[in-house]
Structures are given as structure tokens and as C-alpha cells.
Batch of 2 targets.
Target 1
Amino acid sequence: MRSLPLATVCRPLVCRPLVILFVILGQLEVGPTTVRAQWRGELVVGARAFQDAEGPGGRAGEELDLELRPRAGIEWSHGTQRLDIAPFLRVDLLGDGRSQLDLRELAWTGLWNDWVVSAGFREVFWGVTESSNVVDVINQRSPAGSLDGFEKLGQPMVGVRLDRAWGLVELMLLPWFRERQFEGRAGSLWSPLAVSDGATDYESEAGRHHVDWAVRWSHTFGDVDLAVAHLAGTSREPTLQRGASDGGHELWIPYYELTDVTGAEFQWTTGAWLWKAEAMTRTSTDGRYGAGVGGLEYAVGDFLSLFAEFALDTRGSDALTSFENDAYIGARLLFQDGQARVGFFVDTRSGNRILRASFQKRLGDRFTADLGARWHGGDSGAEPQCAPWQGSLLSFALVTYF
Amino acid sequence: MMFRRVTPRPAPSIMAMALLLVPSGASPQGLESPAQDPSASPENRGRDIALEADRRGSGYGDLRARLTMVLRNRHGDERTRQMRIRVLEGTAGGDRTLLVFDRPRDLSGTALLTHANPDGGDDQWLYLPALKRVKRIAASGQSGSFMGSEFAYEDIGSQEVEKYRYRFHGEDTLDGEHSLVVERVPLDGGSGYSRQLVWFDSEAYRVLQIEYYDRRGDRLKTLRLHGYRLYVECLWRPDVMEMVNHQTGKSTTLTWEEYEFDTGLRERDFERGALGRVR
């Protein structure tokens, strides 16, 4: 067996963030007395049963898996330097190919006066609304069996952040792209064709090594929170194009185009009422399009929140999301030993309806039990791309905290 | 000894857990203070006692502590919450408080940041570590329950002298300590109380007990403060605060540990952007 040269295993662009990380780490003085480490984690046994087991695409009717989510933080130099490590392991106990080992976070962060510098794999959240977040574009998100159907993959990046009286500015360089994963049910649309699990097309000749960048400004003006952000680079959301496998079978091939996404967020918090809106516009090969979500939250004490929102997408039913003309109402109830959530979506064009409900209860100090249900009504074929997030299901998870 | 700012602040600030119930100084000049003048009118004497207690709560800059909250229902079933608290006092924009939860474990790492605005209304942000999400939330009204406990936000909020009308109620002996009892009536209509009776010990002006009366005038809750210890030479802090609700039979115990003062916290440690770095 021939040995692989390091350059093949670890391509320069892939390794760039890690190299930068270690170069920076090498510059640091680590005082042995000041290092503080802490860790915690979760072990999850999750089971899901789907009602549409007999549908096209050979979807499995059940999922059963084990997830391990440890998380460690190491601090030194009086807390001005830290390393965060959060691997993720999923073992698919039914063998449908959904097993996964991922780095959700492996990031170094350093503070110098007003500056915060970070490098490594990170998760970032942008957005203000409840039902969906159209401006949350930094991390790749893969359809997963959970109720809201997303899990984020760690994004390699080098970031700089400056907190000033006029706002918080973040600048990120994103040297390596992560593809959406289509394993298991995520790969089966309301279509007889499967999604290719190997072939992928990119608009950029650099493929996944295209260096993306993003910038975001956010600020609080009294009761109003504002943010504006821009991402230039490879679209996190693929379009699916018909293609053929090596064996000549027709299938869907994910295509990632280059795009410019500009987003804005607004929230006005006035007493118990919270008015929220977020919107984005992006370029695409089919021309510029936009999407937005807006609505309000009403807080009853700090235990009950009621939500009403509306989502728009100018692509209409071509959108890769089911939130193209959807009204949403929802509620979240916190109680002493857990919480309950319910949400109802109506697509005002297709008439599709989705009801989601979940209930989480603490069992002693180390366990929680999560019960979830999703009901989908209407014509599923109207939104073929949205299949992974539709379909009725029941889910149960037992979470152990350590 | 430094004087504490006395700014009018109509809205509650959770901040406060720190300023908690008028921390009192260990000044030896107790007997010479106007609060001890028996010839004053009950209104003036009550107000003087409150001012003296407030005066002795010094500007400590910042503090860190661990806090354990035990919630008990009328059957004696217990639930425990553990958190770390950091407070920065007296910035230009008002006090800053950061609470980070350790227990229950499913909330571990969840953080609540509060900016108390001098002109009323707090700003609050919640950090959800699983989503890496910072969420601006509606600040709870002052009469609302603090995290499902028997403490209302106004009970743990900064107890500014201007927020009440006072009247000296009498002298009493509580747990062997000679106490001055002052009745105070909240001026803000949003308060959940018609009046409160506050027991101050007559030497150091530490709050030993508070009785809360509901809007109908019925006795609602009693707060006892135990285990006072002296920190940084002039700050008295209780280790244990016990609130009993007489109407529901529920109670909440707050236990403070590992107090540290002047730890070098700065405003930037309490900015919205710092929430993602909280562990």
C-alpha cells in the first residue's frame, strides 16, 4: 500500500485555519497556574417513527440512534485565551447510513482589549425570529430527524470581533466549505430519484476551497436591536440538478453556486411585546431573490411566550424551504420541571399545514425526556424539496447529562 | 466610606441580588446617627433608618458569587437551581448583572444578562448555548416571580430609598438582636405589595427580616436573612435568605457562597457580545 503524502491528506486550504490556530497558540505564554478546564456533555438515545414509511424514495419508517455530545473549555491567561472543543458522534443503530462523527466546535479565542480573535471550527447563530431564520447563513445545516429538522455543522473560520460604543462588528474568513449531508431520510425527497451522495458541483473552480468572507454589524439602541450582515461566497443551500450516476441511474446532484447574501435583523422589545423581523436578499443564477420573516412575540411573565409570524420568499414554490408564504402561530410554556412548545404553520399558497409539538421534562438531576410530534397535512407533492421537514412523525429522546 | 449613588429607578433590576436587600456597612457610629433619634417623627425616623442602611451599603465595584436556590412546595418536594452571578455596580448606564446556570444540567451554560437602566425598564438578553443564540427577551415586570421562586424581581432588585414611603414602626428583639422595625410602602403602582415591614439590627443596620403584605393588605411572605459575614472590611452579606409564602405554603432558600469583591470585571464583560464567551 502506497503511503499518502501529507499534502494529499491535508490540503493547504483545508489546513489553513488549523495552521493559523497552531501558529497563534505557539505565540502564547501559558502559565501553568492559570489554566482552568471544565467539561460537560450529553448522551442521547433518540427514536423516531415516521408515518410515510411506504412513500417513494425508500424512506425508512423508523430511526434509532445514539448521540454523544461532549463539550470542553480550557481557559488560561486570566480567561483571555480559551480553547473550546465540541465533537459530535451519532451512531445509527438501524444501519441506515446516518452515523456521523463531526467537529461542531474546535476553536481558539483570544481577547486583547476590545478585540476578540478566534480560529477554528465554530457555530454561529444570526437571527431574531422564532419560526425560521433566513439570515442565519454561516453554518451548513443538514436535514435531520428532529422536529424542526436541522442540525448545524461546524464551520472552519478565522474571525475578528470588535465591541465598541457604536456597535459590535464581526469579520470572518471562511476558507473551507462544508457540504449538506443527504444521508437517510434527508436524501429522499417527494420524488422517486435519490440525491447523489458522492457527486457535487460547484460554480467556483476552487470548489469547496473557495475562500468565503462575511461581515456583520449589530447594535442595541435602547429598546431596539439591529443587525446588518453580508456573506460573499459559496451558497450554503444547494440547488438540485438532474444528473446520472456512473451506472446511468438518474439522480439529483447538489449544485453550490457563488452568491452574495445581505441580511438585516430588527427587534423592538417594548414591555411584554417583542416585534421581530429579519430579511435577506441574495444573488443567484436565476436572478436576485429575497426572503423574510416577521412577526411578534407576547410574553406572559417569564414562563409563557406566544408567537405569530409570517414568512415570505420571492421564489415562491421554487424555494428550497417550506417557508415561502407561510403563516405561523406558536407558544412556549416553561414550567418548573421542563417546557412545552407548540407551533402551527400554514402555507397560504399550497395549503400545506404542519403542526409541531414537543414536551420536555426533567427526571431527577441527570436526565430529561423529550417527546415530540409533527403532523403534516395537505399535498406533499406541492413542495418536493421540503420532504425531509415534512411528513408526520413521533419522536422520543432520553438525554443523560454528565 | 463611599456613598452609594441614589438614582431613581422605577423599574426593578435583578441586578440587585447584589445590592441585595441593602447591604450594610460596619460603621461603629450607630448610636450617633439620626436614625436613632427617638424624638423624630415616625416618618422621618423610618426614612432616616432606611437612608442609614443605604449609606452603609458601599460601592463595591464588582462582585462574583455562587448561588444555590432551593424551591420547596407545600408538600416539601425540593428542586435545586445552581448559578454563578457577576455584578458590576455603578456604570454610567446603570448596574449590570450576569447569571450563568449550572443546574439543572439541561440549562447548564445558559446565561441571563441584565442591564438596569436608570431611566426605568431593564434590558435583558438570554444566551442559549445549544444554539449559540443570544436572544433579547422581555424584562419581567417587578411583581413577577424570579425563576419560578417565591422571590419577586422587586424583592431581589435594588431597593432604592426613593422607591418607598417610610414610617418607624417600633423596636423589637429578633433572634436576640435588638431591631428597629420600619414600615415601607412602595410608591410604584406596579408593585405587588401594599406595604412591607423591615427589621434592621440597630448596630450595623443589616436587614434581618422582611414581611410582605399583598395588595389586599394580607400578610403574604416572610423573608429571613441569616449568616451575615463581613467582607472587604465594610460589607455585610447574608449567606442564607429564606422566603416563605404564607398563603401557598411554598418556600425558597437562596444560599450565597464564594463571594468575591473587586475582581476586576469591566463593562465589556457585561456586553451582549460577551454572552457567547460565558461558560
Note: The mean pLDDT of chain B is 81.
Target 2
Amino acid sequence: MPLLDVNDLTTYFHTRNGVVRAVDGVSFQLEKGETLGIVGESGSGKSVTCMSMLGLIPQPPGRIEKGTAHFDGTDLLHCSPKELQSIRGRRIAMIFQDPMTSLNPYLRIEDQLIEPLLIHGLADKASAKIQALDMLDAVGIQDAASRIRGYPHEFSGGMRQRVMIAMALITKPDVLIADEPSTALDVTVQAQILELIKKEQQELGTAVILITHDLGVVSGFCDRINVMYGGKIVESGSTKDIFYNPQHPYNRALQNSIPALQAKGKELYTIPGMPPDMSKPSAGCSFAPRCEHATDLCTSEPPTLQDIGQAHTTACLRVQRENLKP
Amino acid sequence: MNDTPTRPDAPDTVEKGESLWVGAWHRLRKNKMALAGGVFILLLSGLSFMGPFFLEGDYYTNTTLGDKLEPPGDDYPLGADHLGRDQLGRIIKGGQISLLVGLVATFVSLTIGIGYGTISGYFGGKVDSVMMRLVDILYSLPFVIFVILLMVFAKDLGDSIDAWFAARGSEFSISGQWNMLLLFVAIGAVEWLTMARIVRGQVMSLRRQEFIEACISLGLPTRRIIFRHMVPNVLGPVIVYTTLTIPAVMLLEAFLSFLGLGVQPPTPSWGLLIKDGADRMREAWWMLVFPGALFAITLFSFNFVGDGLRDALDPKTSKD
Amino acid sequence: MLKFILRRVLETIPVLLCVAAMTFFMCRLAPGGPFDEDKQVTAEVRELLNKQFNLDQPLHKQFIQYITHLPTLQSFKYPNRTVGEIISQKFPVSAKLGFFAMCIALSLGILFGVIASLRPNTYIDYIPSSLAMIGICLPTFVMGPLLMLVFSLKLGWFPATGWGGFSGDQFFASDMVLPSVTLGFFYAAYISRLTRGGMLDILTQDYIRTAKAKGASGLRVILKHSLRGGLLPVISFMGPAVAGLIAGSFVIETIFAIPGLGQDFVKSAFNRDYTLVLGVVMFYATLIILLNLIVDILQVTLNPKLKFD
């Protein structure tokens, strides 16, 4: 029984310029203690997927059109706001991309850290403060006792992200969703943050969904990877399979684009074209206009995600039907 | 079914961006209230400035005492006032005066404000600290008190000068124009503070922007930098606050007129008309309601246009 | 913080001196003296009066005298009453009016502003925002008479004039309602717009999303996370708001026949009652500077990004 079971999640944004299909029929599962990576470009729908699950999408203009997201018996998309509130921050926690703006500048760090415990009635104020201090220490903030009464603007970006992680994990949630946690940070700090998440995960047994556009990040970190493009999952499998046995042209193209892996002296490979306009749905595969393997089949028939063996799925019609090796 | 891979026909067209002004215009057009306000102002201006040509008399002297305080009817569409003058005409003429005061006084405050703000923002450092501290202090003092004092004494000064001329048998009367002139300056002198702050803020942030450094390093002449790069960026907020200053100025003029210190009767201004109306509220409600309503709607319109401009020009606050 | 206060006090002294000088010289440079219009006063009596009030001495000497003896100076037009007396009698009335008006302004303004910010661009927003717009565009001297017309003359709910009820000194009487509402409504409108703007600014920030992700309820998000930042523009507005209330009181007191300091100020300006004018101006200026100091201290206290410097 998976911890999190998402089925056909569909979120559209109804704007003045048309309906943007940000997430278009996404299904996946998350097991207890597993690390799942969601990889994709900006606009692929990876963040919106997770925010939809937690009800953090602004409801006008966004709207969850259909789908279910079962978490431990409760359907997150169809439960009462109170139930959702009790799960948020307590059993499923989320940290966001930009640590500079994700903390309230008007409140002390301590107040923000103890808040999840107080909201969910897990501790009284005194013991919450002690837990907060321990947590701050655990995430590697030096001199935690004196810094805890400070304000966010007194912390650097990396430190703020550590605070965010502390805040998310203080309730020992079942799932941690990390939305590009290291993207906004310096390269040296990036690795530290990821290490920290990994360490905490091992200690607490938390399942982690790591959202990123960086293939390098997921390779060392995740058990399974979902590759998203144009609001849909186009390939899903174990990390090993995704890297060593890519079964979708987009996945293959992404890996080809990694500069470090290319031969010196040759022109760098880039994926031609631009990401799709999500307000204009395409008839067939949304990657077809940019795919070097595209045929008439690809532009006419919409693909679906299909199992191709050993928990490895792909949404490329040519792979499914013609055994194409992308 | 074609089996061979076709060339990916990735569209190479890049989305066309739009300039700040074009984008702003689009956003403004969608704002119905702002548009309504703008239309109203245009209509009102047209009426005020052209109307008097079609109206008989000057509405100062055409008193028909026999028709004192006539309620609205056929003869007097908006009623007659306590001296038998047609309210409709008075209101239109009053609109002309009030709008004129609004525009000129705003111009005065614009000039002072832009000058002050540019100097303060451009030089920065000590100069800026001192200048802005002065603005802060002035902002908190009730300038209005000084304006009241100024107008009281200016009025007396004007009267004495008139008396001086009259004593010499001359018909020269300075008090009317003198009063108006001083009114423009006094009101403008109250409202320049906000403009100075805004301009200074913009100039300061612009000066430090990298694109200015880029211009300098490209060797652009200073004149070009100022006019082609700085001015357009300062212009936006200036336009917005000008549109918002006009109603503030008109409010101040009406306030002064109400106290008897603004435009002097028999010249009508909306403030005066409202005062007369308030005094005779019990007998002649139309003297209060019509000028009051028109005044409020005009201020409304200016505020809506100003708000609309502000939302349109600041992409961050745009709703899409 | 003490250094800050000290520095401000030092700044204040030259400002007050400037204000005093400007007021004084404006009064004196205008032609005519305080007793010129009194037809009953003959030329000799006038000279005596001028002498009594030291009006025949050189200007700068008069100035110094005025400054040093201000509260004890006698008013020209109110015989045998000093400036200090008059201010201490009449100011409490104006203060109460201002206080009630401010209470109305803050409570209505913040409430409506917060409500409007919760669902921007829907009816929950349009109605309070339109009311606010009306409040800004309807000047107090239009609204006052209008309210009087409707609520006093036509409906008879509140008395049109007077202050302090029948005996004149009740703490709260029905004749205080209309003037306070009139004066307060304008500022309520301004405050509600500022609150709405401030709250909207805050509510679109990332850290609000973080708060929701932690499981905070809507009420908690507003009260604990948004108000502190959202009300900052309102607090900085308090300085000019007080200045405006004072100016507004001139008109309100005139319309509603309230025996406050504002009405006196206007009358004394017209009457060339120099001492009273100077006294009132200095009093108000000092009051405002003091209040601004408090507002600034409050701002630094509430906004951790600011420091006393």
C-alpha cells in the first residue's frame, strides 16, 4: 500500500489569455521512506503537481479539474479544508525554492520554528522551544542558542534554507516535498543542503519528493525518477533505468545536453525549439515538435504512459509500439 | 503512415515582448473605471472651458433678485442661488475656475517637486540626507496652517493695495488676480513634498542601476543618458502622481474657499458654491447637492484615472 | 534608542524656532494692526494699547519677548485671558473630537481594508473600496453639511450643533456623533486603502505560502503573519493623518459650532490676534512633532528591518 497514491491529477489555470493546462493527468505513487525525484524544465508542471496536492494553488485562477491523491486513506483533493490543514505541515511538509522570500521577515526564527508544533498541538510552548533549538542545531546552524532569537534578514541564503528544512521536519512528517531546494543557492551550498536533506531523511525515515530541473542532483539522491514535460509524466523508473536505459526521447535529449558528458571540441547539443505553450494543447505528443524521432504518428495521436517492464514506464508511442531506442 | 523521422519543425519564433508604455496602455484599457473616469474628465474639461462661451453673462453680475432661491425647474435647471443667479451656469464657470486652479497649482508643485527631488536624488549622500529630512519635517507639519495664515494676510494686503489705488482715484484692482496667483503658489507649495519624494526615489534607484553604468561605459553622452534613459523611467510615477495631485489640490482650494480664503466672490469656484450651499442648506438643498456631487464625481474620476495609471504602469501589481 | 530621541529633540528646536519666526513675521509684515478695525478706539487709546502690548518696540525684540513668555501672553481679542488659558480650555474639546475621529478612522479603516484584501477584485473588495473612494473624494465640508441635512434636519437622529450634550460637558453625547463621523470618515477611507494595499502586498509574498504549508489556518495567517507587515503603511500615515485631523478640525468645528481650538485659530487669524495665533501655531507644531516622534519609534519597533539610526 503506497504512502501516497496520485491518480490523474489535472490542474488548469483559467486566465484572461486562455486556459493553461499546467498539470494534465499526472499519476504516480510514493512508498514509505522512498525518495522520488521529479525532473523537468520550468513550466513542465512539476511544482504545480505538488502544490495542487497540498491545496496551495491560488484557486482562482487555478482549479483542480480532476484526479485523486490518496494519502494514508485520505484523498487530499477531496477532503475538508480542516483535514487538509491538519495534514499540511504535520504529515506532509513542503519547502520552497527561494529561501530569501520564504521566511516571514517580521517574525523571529524561533517563533516560526515552533509554529508547526503549536498549530498541530504537538507540544506546549516551552517544550516546542527546546525542540526548535535541537532542530536548529541538527541542521547545522552554528551557535544556535543565540541565533534562534534573530530575524531572517540576519541569516544568509544557505542558512535560511537550513531553517526551512528544520521548520519542515520539526513535526517529523511522513513526506517532505522539496521544491528546488538548492537552485537559488551558491553551488558550494547546494551540495550541503542536499546532504542535509539526505541525512535527516535517513534519521527520520521520511519519504522525500525532490523537484528539480537538474539531472545531476537526482542522480545521487533519488530512488525513482519521474520525468515531466508539458504537464505530463513522460517517463518514470528507477534512477538506474532512467539514466542507463532512457526510454523517451526527451529524457535522452536532456542527458545529451549535459555539457560535462559531451566530447570536447564539438558543438554543444541543445534541444531545438522552445517549451510548449501550455494554453494551446497539441493534438499528439507535446514533445513532438522538438523530437528528432517524431513521425506523423507522434503528431496525431496523444500518447499515454505505459509500462514497459520492471516498473519502468514511458509515454513515447514509438517506444511502445515500434521499440524505438531513443 | 510515414515511418521515417521528419525534421522537427520547432517553431523558431520568439514571443514578442512589449514595451512598458504599450503594455501599460493595454492594461489601462482593460480598467473600465479608469476609462470611465478619463472620459468624464475630458467631457468636463470641454464643458468648463467651452461652456462659458455659450452661456449668457458672466455669472457674477447677472443677479435677478426677484428669482432668489428658485428650486430647480424650467427657468433654472439646477435652481437659482440666493442672489438669483443660475446655478447651472455658476457650476460650469466654477468648474472652469476649480480645474484651472487644480492644473496650475499642480504645475507649480510639479516644478518645485521635480527640481528638488532630482537634485536630492542625483547628488545623494549628505545633500540628500539633509534635503529629505527637511521634507520629512515639512510633511508632518500642518502646512495648511501656514497657507491659512498666508491667505489671510495676503487678502488684507491685496485689500490695502486696492485701497491705496482707490485713494488715488484709480480703478485698478489687484486683489482679484493677486489672490488667485497667491492661491496657486500657496497650494502648490503644500503639495510638492510627495512629488519630490517620488522623483528623488526614482532618480536615486536609477542612478545606481547597472544599465546607467552600461550607458556610461559605452560612452554615451550625458545628455542622451538623461533624456533617453533616465527621463522615461522617471516619467511613469510622475504622471501617476500628477493625476493624483490634481484632485488633492482641488480639495485644498475648496477647503480654503470654504473658509473664505480662496477664490473671492463673486467669482464662483466649487468650494465657494458648496459653502453657499451649506449655509443655506435648509432652504435650498440644490445649492449644496449639485456642486457637491459634481465636485465629488470629478475627484472620483481623477482618482480612478490615477489609480488605473498606477496599476497599468507597475507590471508587478498587474493582475495577470 | 535614547540617542535617537535626543537627536530628534535637537532637530526639533531649530524647526520650532523657524515656525515661530515665520508665523510671527507673517503676522506682523501684513499691513494693519490688531486694533485698527476697532472703530470705537480713538487714536490715543490705540497708542496706549499698542504700548501696553509692546507693539511699539522693534520687531526682533517683540519676537524674543513673545517666544519667552508665550503661554502667559494675553490674547488681544479676549480681554484678560492669557493664551495659555485659552489653549488649555479649548484644546481638550478639539482633542476629544480628534480622538473619536481617529478611533472611527482606525477601526473602520483597518477592518474594511483587511476584508477588501482577502478577495481582491471581487464584490467583497469592490464595495469597501468604493466606499473608501467616496470617502476620499467627498471633502469634510461637503459631507458635514450633507450628514447634517440628512441625519439632523430630515431624520432628527442627532443634534446638528453643539458639543457635550445639554450641560455642555458630558463625556459622550449624541451631538458628538456627526462631527466625529464626518472627520473620521475621510481618514477611514485613506486608512482602508492603505491597509488593503499593505495587506495585498503581504498576502502575495512567498512566506504566506510557507505559513499555509505549515498548516496555519486562514485567521492565523492574517493575524499573526500578515497584519504586522500590512499595517506598516498605516502607521507611517499616522503622522500626516494627525496633521490633517488638525486642519480638518478647523472646518468641522466651524460647521458644527464646536467650541474648540480649531475654530479659534481661524477666527484669531482673521482678527489679527497675534498672540493667540502664535500660541496656537506653536502648540500645534510641538504636538505634531511629538506625535511624529512616537510614530517613528513605533515604526522601528514593529519593523525588524529598521534600526534607530
Note: Chain A has 13 helices and twelve strands.
